[in-house]
Amino acid sequence: MNKVKRTNIKKERNLKRRKKKYSMKSIDYGLLCGIFLLLFIGIVMVYSSSSYYALYQKDVYNSDFYFIKEITWAIVGIIGMFITMSLDYHIYKKWTPWLVLITLGFLVIVLFIGANINGASRWIRFGPLSFQPSELAKYVVVLYLALLIDRRKGKIRKFKEGTLFYLCVAGVFAGLILLQKNLSITAIVMMVACVMILVGGAKLSHLFSLVPIGIAAGIGLIFTQSYRVKRLTSFLNPWADTSQDSYQLIQSFYALGSGGIFGVGLGNSRQKALFMPEPHNDFIFAIIGEELGLIGCIAIICIFIFIITKGVSIAIQARDNYGLLLGIGIISVIAIQAIINIAVVTGSMPVTGVPMPFISYGGTSLVFNLGAVGILLNISRQSKEEEF
Q1: Which band of pLDDT confidence, cut at 50, 70 and 90, is reported for residue 33?
Q2: Mean pLDDT score of the chain
Q3: What residue intervals traverse the membrane (predicted)?
Q4: 61 in the Ramachandran plot: left (φ > 0), alpha (ψ -120 to 50) or beta?
Q5: Are 350 and 235 in contact (CB under 8 A)?
Q6: C-beta separation of 43 from 77 below 8 A
């Protein structure tokens, strides 16, 4: 009986210490405001960039078509964000194994019944709706790695049982995404995995030892597909073929150059008038540069920097290692996508199909990004307080 009482007393003391150290508080409103600001800009720019394109698109002929769909998905995403924001993020530890199985199932199914668009099968259609499993996979990988690294704390410093094991776990998802001819999302999944593994406590030497293999694999994957080779050559010399492989990038240059410092004015873009292919998607940043100028581009980059800084701060202040890893993973997905999108639009890297988070048109991407931000906001509610 004495042992039982002592155990209970210890548990009560530990619980009191935790209550003193951690407390539920309000969410990080700075992050929430930053996300809503980007979302507002995104909705406005989707309407501005897509109105002319939609008006002349076959089977659409409605300038408000993409604008209405974007608002609809934004509402769904905001509802999802408030739901994930209200759920204790530790509950995902129980859900993660099921989410992994569901996601892997979708990644396999899309290979067989996926809608073929521009030579790639990345979408599963449900009547008028479409779903891109790779967008879900990005965040499920984050959830799964956060769970595994947290549970296997002592093994992260080892090479085979730590770094290599976690990269292989991410590699399973990345491999299935690669089969969909989606090298860009494959690369994002592996980059986010590397960031989480490093933050989790892996040795730098272990990660650096795999860099040559990663570079060799990347080069090999590029040269196994002719369209990837064309993208690389068009990036190295975009002016060699301005009417074919480099066409979209050249139109992006024209848009950014026409915008100058102050832009031509909201709604006054000329490149969106059937010059830029699907201007509301991956190259929407070019239309922003044309209409809002260099000032508008810098403002958006500053908002992203603010959001990324906030996200990293929330992760560092998380109450436990699981929260730290989860927060870093979520903000890494957003940061890496934004960096790649801006680099592509400005011709700093080969053209890839990576949308700009919260701004580019796309329902699946927007909903999952907002849902993930909700998890990040919940982590901020349970952050550590300074001990006195």
Answers
A1: very high
A2: 88
A3: 26-47, 67-87, 99-117, 129-149, 161-179, 185-202, 207-227, 283-309, 321-346, 358-379
A4: left
A5: yes
A6: no
- Beta-carbon contacts of 295 under 8 Å, excluding residues fewer than 6 positions away, are 261, 262, 263
pLDDT at 158 over 50: yes
pLDDT tens figures, 97-136? 999 999 999 999 998 887 766 666 788 887 777 888 999 9
Q: How many C-beta neighbours within 10 Å does residue 249 have? A: 23
Side-chain half-sphere CA neighbours of 197 within 13 A:
31
Give the full edge-to-edge strand order of the sheet including 115-117: 115-117, 120-126, 129-131
How many whole angstroms separate alpha carbon 111 and alpha carbon 123? 9
d(CA 371, CA 21): 28
DSSP state of 355: P
Which tens digits make up the pLDDT trace of 239-249? 877 777 788 89
Residues 257 and 261: their CA atoms lie apart, in Å, by: 9
Which position has the higher pLDDT, 360 or 181?
Answer: 360
The answer to whether the Cα torsion of 45, 49, 52, 53 is positive or negative is negative
pTM for this prediction: 0.90
* CA angle 239–241–242, rounded 5-degree value: 70
C-alpha torsion 304→305→306→308, nearest 10: 80
Q: What is the 3-state secondary structure (H, E, C) of 277-346?
A: CCCCCCCHHHHHHHHHHHHHHHHHHHHHHHHHHHHHHHHHCCCCHHHHHHHHHHHHHHHHHHHHHHHHHC
Whether 226 has a pLDDT exceeding 90, the answer reads no
- Locus of tokens 């491999």: 175
- C-alpha span between 353 and 173 (Å, rounded): 18
Q: Is the dihedral of CA 27, 31, 37, 38 positive or negative?
A: negative
Residue 230 has pLDDT above 60, yes or no: yes
Phi, psi of 288 (to 5 degrees): -60, -45
Residue 212: how many CB atoms within 10 A of its CB? 9
Secondary structure in 3-state letters for 12-46:
HHHHHHHHHHECCCCCCHHHHHHHHHHHHHHHHHH
Contact present, 231 and 181 (Cβ < 8 Å):
no
